[in-house]
Recover the amino acids of this structure.
């Protein structure tokens, strides 16, 4: 896959930010929930890092969020995991 110049690949992001949280994206999208996920990152003073995306079983998808700190990854998971 082609990336913007200087941008890390999703695999490189996952190696550098090894604490992963997968979130299911319903067929209609995340809507306001996606904004809340980015707000979470802002509240914690971190940049949002996403890893590999893959298609889910029922037409939606799965977004993999990557974190350097396991405690922040756990907090994100508890707030947004379905």
């Amino acid at each position: 896959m082609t990336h913007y110049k200087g941008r890390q690949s999703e695999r490189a992001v996952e190696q550098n930010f090894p604490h992963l949280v997968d979130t299911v994206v319903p067929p209609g999208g995340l809507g306001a929930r996606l904004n809340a996920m980015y707000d979470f990152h802002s509240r914690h003073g971190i940049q949002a890092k996403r890893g590999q995306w893959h298609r889910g079983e029922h037409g939606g998808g799965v977004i993999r969020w990557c974190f350097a700190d396991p405690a922040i990854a756990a907090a994100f998971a508890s707030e947004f995991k379905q």
